[in-house]
Design goal:
It is a single chain. The chain is of the alpha+beta class. The protein contains 3 helices and 6 strands; from the N terminus they run ααβββαβββ. The protein has helices spanning 2-24, 28-31, 77-82; strands at 32-48, 55-61, 67-73, 95-103, 109-116, 122-124. It has a 5-stranded mixed β-barrel. The protein is globular and about 70 Å long. 23% of the residues are buried.
Amino acid sequence: MKANAFLILFMTLGLVLMATPLVAHHSFMVGFDLSKPIVVKGVVTKVAWANPHISFYVDVTGPDGKVTNWGIDAAAPSALAARGWTSASMKAGDVVTVEGFLARNGKPFAAASTVTLGDGRKILAGSDGAYAK
């Protein structure tokens, strides 16, 4: 009887642990709007090469001369590596052009679909859903 209770507890704990990543990950459509494409060009200030997706920040100078720091999300490091990115592809100080989709909350935040690096390479950067259909 004790062995069965332990087995049930062990199986339940296993199922909970397996489901945790599903709860932690968020859908592209929840945070970003495919009907609001944007293009920003600026100087990279920070790159966070980490799971579940990389994030980077770009100082963008507006027509009025005001600088706004944009946050950009891209795909997972493994997906980007398969497309030719490395953690050294983009660093603080680089000038990049980002094509993507505006955050639904209206803040200067976007999901990248492509990034044109300073050397002219254009790399697909989006995760699933971050591409216009």
